[in-house]
């Protein structure tokens, strides 16, 4: 049984007040709160077990290495990957996508080659490709969403041409909540011989993910959204793609031997993990994923669907509020504006006075905001510990904002 009251007790920050009101944390799309087991693992990692990993021969180094490396297997299990050597550990999705941009795309793309993107990508899945556009003449091809925020997978497949070398697409929009049929995109792209990178930063938090079933070549996740520490993350890279990549960050761990006149690289995935990593952060990520899997990803998804449906009903009752993204199977993410002159930042400030934490701005999605004709929205994004009662608090706070700006 999924008992959200018990689950909330695992998150110490949820018992605090903000501006004299109980905290209602609805900024999970930006970064999620941490359960006590993760906080304890981080504290113990620094207080009792800290040492550098991989090359030490003493007890603490071996212990840290064992715990650090065990996270690779946890992530593989979380993503449905049989071979943990297809998991590259890093500090988050941005690093994962840049690893693909510099290690795989840059060496093989020529002027005029194309990358297909959706208009609702996060900047982390846009800016690295702009580097290739500016420096190598790569062409970015954009696929729009419809008025509900739906991304037609066939439109993405149809955008693939003879010069397309990569499709890079989000699995779940951080603004619209749209769930993208990435499996259909991968099937269509594979038939045309084009690899697919999936930004899983949002999706992996809200639903079960099996990358082998999806059929993608790259799948990036970030720890701080997965109830784990910031500075942790990973990217799945299909073994065939790994064999095509070159390392782009040089240093310790990614080498086998270094001499004055030559250097030899370590085997993947270590080839792409240069330097001292975020040891304790990565250990904390493993604990966070174990925590989520202990609750059950299907159970989390079902709970969040209940929140989504209730929040949608309540928000639909506010005829002065405009919600962006209305697909039926969207995640529990709601971006909205108020009729009139109220700016998203002003709305967010008023909600904060009621203890409600939401995000306001462009949400690192400039092209999507241009497509929507907006300069900013407020975003309420729900997580595994939120409740229907907190939806009611959000609605009350929005009604207050409406009164103040009417």
TrEMBL record:
Keywords: Pyridoxal phosphate, Transferase. Its cofactor is pyridoxal 5'-phosphate. SUPFAM superfamilies: PLP-dependent transferases. It comes from the Bacteria. InterPro entries: Aminotrans_V_dom, Aminotrans_V_PyrdxlP_BS, Cys_dSase_SufS, Cysteine_dSase, PyrdxlP-dep_Trfase, PyrdxlP-dep_Trfase_major, PyrdxlP-dep_Trfase_small. One of its GO terms (molecular function) is pyridoxal phosphate binding. One of its GO terms (biological process) is cysteine metabolic process. The keyword Nucleotide-binding does not apply. The keyword Transferase applies. It catalyses: (sulfur carrier)-H + L-cysteine = (sulfur carrier)-SH + L-alanine. Its EC number is 2.8.1.7. Residues 24-394 form the Aminotransferase class V domain. It is an enzyme of class 2 (transferase). Gene3D superfamilies: Aspartate Aminotransferase, domain 1, Type I PLP-dependent aspartate aminotransferase-like (Major domain). NCBIfam families: sufS. Belongs to the class-V pyridoxal-phosphate-dependent aminotransferase family. Csd subfamily. PANTHER family: CYSTEINE DESULFURASE (PTHR43586), CYSTEINE DESULFURASE 1, CHLOROPLASTIC (PTHR43586:SF8). Catalyzes the removal of elemental sulfur and selenium atoms from L-cysteine, L-cystine, L-selenocysteine, and L-selenocystine to produce L-alanine. This is Cysteine desulfurase.
């Amino acid at each position: 049984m999924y008992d959200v009251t018990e689950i909330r007790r695992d998150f110490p920050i949820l018992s605090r007040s903000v501006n004299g009101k109980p905290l209602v944390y609805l900024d999970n799309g930006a970064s999620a709160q941490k359960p006590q087991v993760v906080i304890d693992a981080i504290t113990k990692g620094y207080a009792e077990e800290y040492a550098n990993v991989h090359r030490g021969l003493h007890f603490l180094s071996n212990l840290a290495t064992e715990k650090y490396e065990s996270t690779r297997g946890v992530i593989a299990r979380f993503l449905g990957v049989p071979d943990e050597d297809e998991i590259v550990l890093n500090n988050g999705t941005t690093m994962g996508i840049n690893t693909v941009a510099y290690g795989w795309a840059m060496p093989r793309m020529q002027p005029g080659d194309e990358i297909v993107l959706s208009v609702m990508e996060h900047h982390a899945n846009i800016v690295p490709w702009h580097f290739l556009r500016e420096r190598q003449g790569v062409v970015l091809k954009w696929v729009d969403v419809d008025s509900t925020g739906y991304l037609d997978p066939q439109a993405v497949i149809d955008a693939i041409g003879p010069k397309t070398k990569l499709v890079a697409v989000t699995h779940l929009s951080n603004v619209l909540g749209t769930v993208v049929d990435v499996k259909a995109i991968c099937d269509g792209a594979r038939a045309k011989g084009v690899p697919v990178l999936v930004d899983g930063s949002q999706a992996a938090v809200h639903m079960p993910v099996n990358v082998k079933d999806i059929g993608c070549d790259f799948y990036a996740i970030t720890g701080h959204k997965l109830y784990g520490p910031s500075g942790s993350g990973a990217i799945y890279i299909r073994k065939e793609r790994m064999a095509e990549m070159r390392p782009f960050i040089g240093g310790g761990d990614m080498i086998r031997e270094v001499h004055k006149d030559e250097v030899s690289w370590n085997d993947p995935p270590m080839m792409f993990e240069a330097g001292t990593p975020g040891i304790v952060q990565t250990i904390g990520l493993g604990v966070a994923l174990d925590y989520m899997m202990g609750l059950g990803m299907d159970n989390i998804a079902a709970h969040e669907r209940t929140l989504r449906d209730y929040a949608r009903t309540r928000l639909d009752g506010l005829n002065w509020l405009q919600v962006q993204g209305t697909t039926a199977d969207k995640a529990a993410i709601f971006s909205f504006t108020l009729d009139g002159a109220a700016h998203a930042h002003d709305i967010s400030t008023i909600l904060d006075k009621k203890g409600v934490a939401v995000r306001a701005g462009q949400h690192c999605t400039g092209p999507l905001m241009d497509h929507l004709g907006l300069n900013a929205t407020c975003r309420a994004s729900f997580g595994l510990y939120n409740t229907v009662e907190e939806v009611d608090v959000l609605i009350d706070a929005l009604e207050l904002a409406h009164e103040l700006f009417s």
